[in-house]
Design brief:
Blueprint (H helix, E strand, L loop, with lengths): L1 E6 L7 H12 L6 E6 H4 L13 H12 L2 E9 L2 E2 L1 H10 L7 E8 L8 H12 L2 E2 L4 E4 L10 H22 L1
Parallel strand pairs: 1-2, 1-3, 3-5, 5-6, 5-7
Antiparallel strand pairs: 3-4
Helix pairs in contact: 1-6
This protein binds flavin mononucleotide.
Flavin mononucleotide binds next to helix 1, strand 3 and strand 5.
Length: 173
């Protein structure tokens, strides 16, 4: 089984990237393959529904999606949704996500945006028939230990790591 973690924040001091890195760390030594794609380094074009699909970075990103059985999206919450970079990533590669498993690690400013990933999750389910793990990690500003990952966040990621691997494993068999 192969799992792709997509870290979508373009902020150099991203908190959702710390969530993605913690998940990757917790999966070290697992009996499945884990790959990280950081959109800060992916240099993707904006999707224009045309020439962008021929861009070499877009083709590379699409190949990474194709190889994966499950995809974890680590995203900031921007304006009650995932960020635009992640939406763009899906516009470029989404058709390769068909029937795969999806999960979310989100970093937000406040607790009130808790349902924000849902419209994106709906798109994944309706457009690409993805199977979305109904347990997200949602972290708000007050959960951090002065910008460091707290024990509580690490525990929540640990629970997610177990649930996602189990779910993706069952769907891949
Ligand atoms: C443009 C913008 C929009 C935001 N919108 C929301 C929002 O709707 N709800 C919320 O709780 N936080 C919002 N935030 C706060 C971010 O979600 C928070 O800073 C988060 O840690 C960003 O993730 P990152 O550190 O991985 O980039 C927003 C921040 C920015 C810059």
């Amino acid at each position: 089984m192969k799992i792709l973690i997509v870290s979508s924040s373009l902020n150099p001091d991203s908190k959702s990237r710390l969530l993605a890195q913690e998940l990757e760390k917790q999966w070290k030594g697992a009996d499945f393959e884990v790959t990280m794609l950081d959109l800060r380094e992916a240099n993707l074009p904006m999707c224009d529904g045309s020439a962008a699909y021929g861009d070499e970075n877009a083709i590379r990103a699409k190949a990474m999606v194709e190889e994966a059985d499950g995809i974890v999206f680590a995203s900031p919450i921007y304006v009650y949704n995932v960020n635009a970079a992640l939406k763009n990533f899906v516009e470029l590669t989404g058709h390769s996500m068909k029937d795969k498993v999806a999960g979310f690690l989100c970093s937000a400013g406040g607790k009130l945006s808790y349902m924000s990933p849902m419209s994106f999750a709906n798109s994944l389910m309706l457009d690409f028939r993805m199977f979305v793990l109904p347990r997200f990690v949602y972290v708000s500003a007050e959960d951090w230990n002065e910008d460091q990952l707290s024990e509580d966040i690490a525990d929540r990621i640990g629970e997610f790591a177990t649930n996602f691997a189990d779910f993706a494993g069952r769907m891949t068999d």
